[in-house]
Amino acid sequence: MIKFAITRGIKLDVKKSPLNYTAVGDSITAGVGASFFSPGFVPRFARLAEESLGRRVVHKIFARPGALSGEVLEAVRSPLVSSALAESELITITAGGNDLIQGLRSYQLTKNEKDISSRLNISAEKLSGIVDHITELKSDSAGPFMVYLLNLYSPVPEEETADRWIRKFNKQIQQLCDHHHFRTVNIYQAFKGNENDLVAMDRVHPNDSGYNRIAEKIKNTGYGLLICQ
């Protein structure tokens, strides 16, 4: 007989071991912009994964607000984070947003598109390094796992030049996810035209509704072979 536990109203199969979920990234992973005592997308997605997969999900967050893509790559390569990633069935990565913001600030002063493009190109290289490192960590993994790379939404949707380069950057992220264990989460599409409802008062980070939308978007991206376990 299969035994179940009821946790927060979710039926979980207690005979199956918990799933490990590691989230690495910047302020989006840290949950900046959420209201006081409200969670970011990581705890929200963990709960949705429990509902979908019927197993307890234990999550760890390694994030620093303001982190550039290169700093996220350094974190991913650190022994502590590498160990957590190697043991995780669910992984989310956010990076590139702060590189974008730096580029936008320079562009607003110079009107030189290279201020945006150069930073986003460097960010894409760092994300490629993140994917390569996780691929190496998981090369001997016997069980299924999913890695979700969240793409970028525009904090200044009215700025067509920035929007164009964000779309180019997001295409580069999509190209990195050419393996069935890696998927792009299209946050750009989810936020486009809905910024007033989903972005916090700082006009940069998601609000509670925005983080909920991100969690739902990750869930809807799918769980791959984890759904069959």
Automatic annotation (TrEMBL):
<dbReference type="GO" id="GO:0004622">
    <property type="term" value="F:phosphatidylcholine lysophospholipase activity"/>
</dbReference>
<dbReference type="InterPro" id="IPR036514">
    <property type="entry name" value="SGNH_hydro_sf"/>
</dbReference>
<protein>
    <submittedName>
        <fullName>Spore gernimation protein</fullName>
    </submittedName>
</protein>
<dbReference type="InterPro" id="IPR051532">
    <property type="entry name" value="Ester_Hydrolysis_Enzymes"/>
</dbReference>
<feature type="domain" description="SGNH hydrolase-type esterase">
    <location>
        <begin position="23"/>
        <end position="212"/>
    </location>
</feature>
<dbReference type="InterPro" id="IPR013830">
    <property type="entry name" value="SGNH_hydro"/>
</dbReference>
<dbReference type="Pfam" id="PF13472">
    <property type="entry name" value="Lipase_GDSL_2"/>
</dbReference>
